[in-house]
User: Fold these one by one.
Assistant:
Number 1:
Amino acid sequence: MNVGVAHSEVNPNTRVMNSRGMWLTYALGVGMLHIVLLSIPFFSVPVAWTLTNVIHNLGMYVFLHAVKGTPFETPDQGKARLLTHWEQLDYGVQFTSSRKFFTISPIILYFLASFYTKYDPTHFILNTSSLLSVLIPKLPQLHGVRIFGINRY
């Protein structure tokens, strides 16, 4: 029994992305980012779309794939300390609805950015490399893998 703990989950990081309104809040946040970038006078529409895509994917990479541990005190004896948020999501079960949502959303944003930049080669390379930087770590084969020992501890 956990005395003084307000939640019933062993690790609340596992279920936070399934909480009520999280997907809507996420989509609204991306939309607000894009509106703010469009409101900057010297950014063209293609630049705003590319910046939206790159900033979104950078934030997603840092939040889901680079930061390890949990902000909560968990009774799992430090098991969550060695896992990224993506690896903790849904207790590590692959192909859940929240994992599918967070895999498909950067792809949709990539298609939108590519369309509105009219497939300009410079924007296309930036958007594609940004997309690959968040899709490759999501592969089930890379669950718990630390390439070149980066982010091992």
Number 2:
Amino acid sequence: MLIVKYPRATEPLWHEWDGKAQKCGLRHTVYAVNGDQYTGEWLDNLKHGKGTQVWKRTGAIYSGDWKFGKRHGYGSYSIPDPVTKEYKKVYTGWWENDQKCGYGTTFYPGGEHYEGEWSRGLRSGWGRMYYGDGSIYEGQWLADRPGGEGMLRLPNENRYEGGWKDGKKHGPGKFFYLDKGQLFEGIWAADIPKCGILIDFGREEAPAPTQYPIPKV
């Protein structure tokens, strides 16, 4: 009986190479064509899990969680100082779909920083902002500006408590002039007091009280 043997079908070499090129699980540093580099976990050729990305053009580094190729979860983002070349942390906190989302802290040039809630990369929700002149705002934020209820404390300890809109005092509010021992309570619109009453408040403890007390109505 004649037996005919047929040669086994062989897979093209590119199939083998393509299989080896698929990235899934933990990998050593992988370089992109533009010089960016990533070290960490992959899933279906996408950054997924824990990993560190370095951008060649800016030198920025992100280290933290990834989900299907985007920053998602908890992580920190840092950039090199243009003079000292030492890395300075810019943001530490939560991310969603490659944007700041949830609770996190951002450091700005000049020593300013914000700690609080974010949404789609903007300050939204509750947060506290430390400004370069020593002022501190604590309260609600909307679309990256104070919006809702909040308190602004100035370097001389004077403070405003009340409503905000588009980053300006708006609506019912109180301004405590603790340096003079007075309190203004009224309605504000776009940072301008429209109507209200001014009374003495803590006049005895004020460092620079007005010459004459305000008569009681």
Number 3:
Amino acid sequence: KTEKDHADDNPYEIRAYLPDLMRSFGKLENGLQDVLNNNKRWADTSQLKEMRFFDKLENEPKLYWIGCSDSRVPPELISQLGFGQVFVHRNIANQFKTDDVNSMSELEFTVNHIKVEHIVVCGHTKCAGVKNACRDDLGKNLVAWLSDIRKIKDVHPELFPDQETLSRMSHDEIDRIQEILVEVNVADQVKKLSTNDIVKKAWEDEKRKLAIHG
């Protein structure tokens, strides 16, 4: 069926679709203006207006997502969830920082006010933040932000081979080490969340549904 035929079946149904995952900003003829035009066309879709799509959206998600800022891992797309379903916090290497007002205020808001049922810490392979956390040429802000990952080196030095050792390793061996480091980093963030006073207080309520997933 054509797009028009599908629309005739039910004019109020918006069918899920997979966007062009290889569409590149660099290939847009007019750069940012094309992005703005795309957004306007999407927002002006007659189906959205007829069903008062934006008016009906509620910000009462059951899932709080802490993920990496990497542009290749958009939460709604890889989870296949719709608008209003995920409360998202993204930063370099999916960190939860107790000394960061942004991290703590979002945790307080999602747990105490939205009352989410699931907190997801989502790491990913090929994470540049994890891979480069211990480089000597990082500026002070990145050193501070990636401090948790840098501390992993004290416990798991085998995950941080020196250049000579790296030169003798295969690509598969290097990839596997970095995958393990990603997993350890996720586990560390889950542990910090699990021992946070906001979460522990919520868990004191036996009727409360709240789980943390790494």
Number 4:
Amino acid sequence: IVLTGGEDRLWKTWGFPDGNILLTGEGHTDWLSGCCFRPSGTQLVTSSGDTTVRIWDLSRRGCILTLRGHSRAVHGCSWHSCGDFVASASMDGTSKIWDVNSERCRYTLRGHEASVNSIEFLPFSSTALTSSADKTLSLWDVRTVSRL
């Protein structure tokens, strides 16, 4: 199964090798910039130009949580390997670590001088890697909200 998102504001799951669409989700009001399966495979996260991050439940075929807090388009998103946290990277120059269980922003990572274009957790750690339009990469300890 492959997951995609695009300018049509939809995410889609595709079965391979046939290439047929298995599921489609709609709800964002602008382009999708990122999408990622939860490690358990039961949910996914999407990021969008509409400034939101959404959590989708595949069995319910719908959005179960909309995370708001960025002031500009969100360029990317990822799940932590434990499945309890989602990270987002935004044009507003920040990244956020969201606690899915409490449905709130746990930490805001500040320090880049331009748009944050991507964020990824290092597997099984509290470290996140961000890339920015300021031409830098940063490693963060998300427990202390500090650069490494």
